[in-house]
Design brief:
By secondary structure, the protein is an alpha/beta fold. The chain is built from ten helices and nine strands. The chain has a single domain, classed as Rossmann fold.
């Protein structure tokens, strides 16, 4: 079907308004276009680019595949009925750790969409669950820290999904994000298929933290998935070595729950 210019404009505007009205939808800072990442700093430009891309390549719900949205209201209502707090095993120097869900079903598909398909809008879906999870804890922290990517992995992907989630959570709970307090200075091989001991060896000394940004502070580490806790523990150890007072950990999901 051929659309004239006015019809096309109206169609794009209707879709854009529909996305803005979806509670889980947030405007991404990084947009994917034919495999490339476009950095947009001006809100007006971001809106135009988002509308054009969505018109050419309509998004699909990560949960059910429904067209024209990254996450539909039906999938949101479904996960809203699920528990949001699951304690995770403690590994020193982590003071406490929790996750919001099992790594399965629609949550798993949504995480993969954020991680590999640049579905930045899903960050707020996860942040909403994290906010609810934190209400179940008595944790006191002053700063959010996303688990960092090595610079090579960051350049390949174009963004850090943990930072996207932490940024969305910060907007909800009013706690700042400090992404520069810790860095992944050593590249590591994929953790997939490794047991906990092998994972610990793989990420040993892979992170280093800034004493200037860590001394005396209490941190909440943020990540998308916890499998064995090796990465979180290694990050926490680096922060503790740099003088952090207390470290908590929160993930969207966990592959193994006790």
């Amino acid at each position: 079907m051929v659309m004239n210019r006015d019809s096309a404009h109206e169609h794009g505007a209707q879709r854009h308004n529909q996305q803005l009205n979806t509670e889980a939808q947030v405007r991404p800072e990084l947009l994917s276009f034919t495999g490339k990442v476009i950095m947009t700093r001006r809100p007006f430009l971001s809106t135009i680019v988002t509308t054009i891309i969505d018109w050419l390549y309509p998004p699909r719900c990560a949960g059910c595949g429904r067209l024209d949205t990254h996450w539909c209201a039906m999938c949101q209502r479904e996960i809203d009925t699920e528990p949001v707090y699951f304690p995770l095993p403690l590994y020193p120097p982590i003071a406490a750790a929790a996750t919001t869900s099992h790594y399965t079903g629609k949550i798993r598909r949504a995480i993969k969409a954020l991680k590999y398909d640049n579905a930045q809008a899903l960050s707020d879906v996860f942040a909403r669950r994290m906010e609810a999870c934190l209400r179940e804890t008595k944790w006191i922290y002053d700063t959010l820290i996303p688990v960092p990517l090595h610079k090579d992995h960051f350049h390949q992907r174009g963004y850090n999904q943990a930072y996207s989630i932490a940024h969305a959570l910060a907007q909800r709970i009013g706690v700042p994000v400090e992404a520069n307090a810790i860095e992944r200075w050593r590249s590591t091989r994929s953790q997939v298929g490794l047991n906990r001991e092998a994972r610990m060896q793989n990420v040993h000394n892979a992170f280093r933290a800034s004493p200037t940004l860590s001394q005396g502070r209490t941190f909440l580490l943020i990540d998308d998935v916890c499998t064995t806790g090796a990465t979180l523990q290694s990050c926490a150890q680096a922060l503790a070595n740099a003088g952090a007072q207390r470290i908590y950990c929160l993930t969207v999901s966990a592959a193994r729950l006790r």
